[in-house]
Design goal:
The chain is an alpha/beta fold. Helix content is 37%, strand content 18%. The chain has a 6-stranded mixed sheet with strand order 5-6-7-3-8-9, with helices on both faces. Strands 2-1-4 form a 3-stranded antiparallel sheet, covered by helices on one side.
Amino acid sequence: MLTIRDLTLGYGGEPVLEGADLDVVAGQFVSLVGPSGSGKTSLLRAVTGLQATDGGDVSLELERDEVGFLFQDDALLPWRTARHNVALGLLAHRWKKRDAYETADTWLHRFGLTGLEDRFPRQLSGGQRKRVALAQVLALQPRLLLMDEPFASLDAIVRHRITRDLLVWVEQEHLTVLLVTHDLEEAITLSDAVYLLSNGPNAHIRQRYEVPLARPRDLVETKADPQFGPLYETVWHDLAREVGLEDGDRDGDHGNRVRPSEVQNESADARRRSARNGRPTKSSSTSARTEARAS
């Protein structure tokens, strides 16, 4: 579905990302991890055409309007209700208002927002706003979903719940996803493959890791799988080398402050207790331009 070859990206000077090769097949969940400044977000923007390339090729087996983009910060229009924000993209695609609003309500219901359809973004919590943004993107039924650390600003419990709901939907619909994250547990738990980018500038793709975990996945139980700990440890140590961290230093912002051995040895019972107590382990909206098209 997505093939990238020898991609180079920059902003007029030294390349941020250079010579990158990446493949995402239909129905696959792929994550990008790496140091800050390694070009992860720029790569996502290049896929959508928002970022000009300095070289290489980005090949999509679908139309650009079949790509959804969920940003780190939601782009909900503050003067529009939750219902209208979700319906905005549908109206831009010339849906009838009645059908667009009914579909918006259906998606809000799916994400547990029934009764909040007429609230404005300022009247919603951070988690509720993020659910509206996710409903806005998925209402357009994209074949490829790009996500740039969409849940990084949420607290652990809300993040766990929204990620769980998204994972269920992705697996049910066989949605193709490319995610940027700094959370290694999140990357491994959700993905079929993880790409590690090197330090920038002139960053490149250092390694690709296959994630041999069966689906469907449970966010808690997956981390107790015997294959999870060793893979986490491998990716962590490779990433630590890229950012210059000494072994055992967990104070950087590029991974979880948990020793890989602790991840591997933590029992499934302990993880179940954490989830029941509401303490899970750490594991795009449409812009104003779209509203102009819809009006």
